[in-house]
Amino acid sequence: MGGSKLQRRSSDEHLAAQRFRWQFLTPRYWLLWLWFAVLWLVSQLPYCCVRAIGRAAGLVLFRVVPARRRVALRNLALCFPELSETERWHLAREHFASAGFTLFESGWVWWGSRKRFEAFFDIQGAEILEALTGKPVLFFGLHNTCVEMAYAYLSLQRPLNVLFRVNNNPLWEYMATRSRSRYQVRLIPRKQVPEFIARLSAGEAGLIAADQDLGRKRSLFVPFFGVEAATVPSVHEFARAACAQVVFAEAFRAGNGRYVVRLKLLQNFPSNDPLADTRTMNLCIEESVRRHPEQYLWMHKRFKTRPKGEACFYQ
Predict the structure, then answer these.
(1) Which helix (H) or strand (E) holds 210?
(2) pLDDT score, position 6
(3) CA 66, 71, 74, 80 torsion: positive or negative?
(4) In whole angstroms, what is the distance from residue 210 CA to residue 110 CA?
(5) How far apart are CA 98 and CA 236, in angstroms?
(6) In order along the chain (315 residues), what is the average pLDDT of each group of 10 residues?
């Protein structure tokens, strides 16, 4: 079944649709099965080994995927003009190393021991979760290189409804959906916004990451590192529609090999001003990125959509 049809289903229908199909055994999917086997094997290894394998893979990608390297370097030049070219090159290299680790973290989330998984995490701001028990809460985060690990852990602290993009590869979607169902996550295709808002309004919690360039439609141009960036005001809109409290859920790998989820309750949010609220959201994300710049998703063309009259940043 094609991705476009899946996107029109409700979350429960989407989960029910994820059944094994005999076509998954055809040669078209053999390389993907091999990748899943590698992920499973790596998920059984000690943390230090997974980190070393992931870092090595990321550094190889830095060399062999020049298009994405150029995007990362261009983004870093826009966001950190105070750094020298050598410093930005080093930061881009560390970003790829961090992203390489991400390739193998999915194995931990999908098949690793839950007890072992939880032991790697610290949470800051747990009192916020307790204070908002039973109330509508909209968590927002950012696309960084430990996003799946961190938000799987957050779902164990409070069940989450997550807006997501359905993958066009049906085998990947089958494996990802079934594996993520181990956690307290309800996956809602991103075209099913009414269901997402209804669940928030009923006192549940939701999670979105609205820090990617999704084009001109519905976007506002809001500064991100001082550069106008097309940003969808979803956090403002969803929070107002559901009368939800808004919490910034920052996640990162700490230098000691542990993962941290840091929660921050936004005060007087949402307001009546979507532009001001979206600026606040971008500022929260920017402050987080500055603390751990190598972990942000610099390979994404964050500034692809430009205000009318401006030239494209990516050649």
Answers:
(1) none
(2) 36
(3) negative
(4) 24
(5) 31
(6) 42 64 92 94 88 94 96 98 98 96 87 85 95 96 92 93 86 86 86 93 95 92 97 97 97 88 96 97 97 96 94 90
Q: What is the amino acid identity at position 51?
A: R
According to the model, what pLDDT value does residue 111 have?
87
Looking at residue 23, the DSSP 8-state letter turns out to be G
| Burial zone of 234 (CB within 10 Å; 0-12 exposed, 13-18 middle, 19+ buried) | buried
Give the pLDDT confidence score for residue 4 in this predicted structure. Answer: 38
Instruction: Look up tokens 């190393």; give the residue.
Output: 97
Tell me, what's the pLDDT at 11? 59
Report CA-CA distances (Å) from 24 to 33, 130, 168, 173, 229. 9, 43, 14, 12, 40
pLDDT at position 105: 87
Please tell me whether the peptide bond between 307 and the residue prior to it is cis, using omega within 30 degrees of 0.
no
Q: Going by C-beta distance under 8 Å and a sequence separation of 6 or more, which residues neighbour residue 8?
A: 189, 191
Residue 2: what pLDDT? 39
Q: Which two tokens stand for residue 237?
A: 């809109």
Say if residues 81 and 30 touch (Cβ distance below 8 Å). Answer: no
- Tokens coding 114: 């839950």
CB 173 within 8 Å of CB 200: no
Q: What is the pTM of this model?
A: 0.90
**Cα 1 to chain center, whole Å?**
25
Buried (b) or exposed (e) across 138-171, using 16+ Cβ within 10 A? bbbbbebbbbbbbbbbbbbbbebbbbbebeeebb
List 189's β-bridge partners, or say none: 164
The reported pLDDT for the residue numbered 3 is 39
- Give the Cα separation of 117 and 265 in Å (integer): 26
**Helix boundaries (H) for the chain:** 3-6, 11-17, 30-43, 47-64, 66-79, 85-111, 114-118, 126-131, 147-157, 170-180, 193-201, 234-242, 274-291
Amino acid at 227: V
